[in-house]
Amino acid sequence: MTTTIKNTNCNFEREPLIRPFGFKGGYMSEIWQSIAAMESTNGVRSIGLNTQSVLWSDASIFTSNSESAGNAIMFAMTSYALKLAKGMSFETPFDLLEQLLQPVWEYGKVLTGNKNLRQTFALNSLVGVDAAAWLLYAREHGFKSFDEMIPAQYRPILSSRHRKLASIPLMAYAIPMEEIVRHVEEGYFFLKVKIGSDPDKDGDREKMLQWDMARVEAIHKAIGSRETPYTENGKIPYYFDANGRYDSKERLERFLDHCRKIGCFDQIAIIEEPFPEDYLANVGDLGVRVAADESAHCDHDVAQRIELGYSAIALKPIAKTLSMTLKIAEVAARSKVPMFCADLTVGPIQVDWNKSFAARIGALPGMKVGVVETNGHQNYKNWATMGSYHSHPNAPWSKVEGGCFSLNDDFYAESAGIMQDTQHYTQLVFK
After folding, report:
1. 166 part of a folded domain
2. In the predicted model, is pLDDT for residue 399 greater than 90?
């Protein structure tokens, strides 16, 4: 059955942050939430949401433009994609993404004046478009659930049914130590810590390393001895995210040597994206699980990273599209490489898109439960208001208790509410 797109539209809202949000050596003050709308020739409608992250998807665009200008560029790419999509037909949303990705990426290169624009920037701009296509596809075919919507060849990858997901909060550069301790006291036990700071804003990598070592040492001293029932060794696992800031394997090895010295090395569950994506060093001999994130733009990139010794893949259906994430997951599963779902500081509705994927993939080695990163509650000024836009605003699966989301039968039966449109965002694109 072919779906043909008759009409499209888009809009966005600017959501302020509680404090400047720091990573990759930069800081964001707000995050744009864009909405993509589609209507088929059969009169079926759908919307998809996207959280824009210019800094994450291509830091060079963030640093070479004002914050608003960078966001405007990405939104213009979303708008362009929807104009192209009008009149297009597709058998599955994979087909639509294949038709849109290259022209939207090329359009972005023109808008930015950057011929080396990262593919992830284009994928980020297409998240809402792809989500709208999946929901349109489901409604046209009469699929009522997330499980029904996923094509048969991908269902074995998504065959787990976790009853608990560890909620991973993010400890960005500006998060004070007392807040980190408070999170652990509240029950959170799997911490994602941003490393790769630029403390004096001068690009000095040696200062970065010293800052990182001091930061990790202070964190380990404050919480490293805490225990948790959700890991096989009973210890709190660390998830260090460098966002490509380390310029050499030697410098990363110095960081890891310091971790050994202070006694936290054995608690490192993941080091994510330590190097720039064009730094093709083999990481299989570092003694830690190294994960690919931004560098794994697509399924072909994932295969290359696995050859380089990367032993985990960060999945981001809320940042690289559901379609591309399924393709990436298939490659990782074929190589028996563990996967986990990372955040993009998305809103509550997209958290449940991510959670729907995370609930169905296998647990990370050393973990007794599934995991999903979500840090929007730490960063959005209007988080509670954004939560009220959800089709199931007070669902039990949205609450964190003891550091975990509890996923009951309703979570799976209701597909976490993601198959239903939300009135707030719908009225911004459909009259």
Report:
1. yes
2. yes
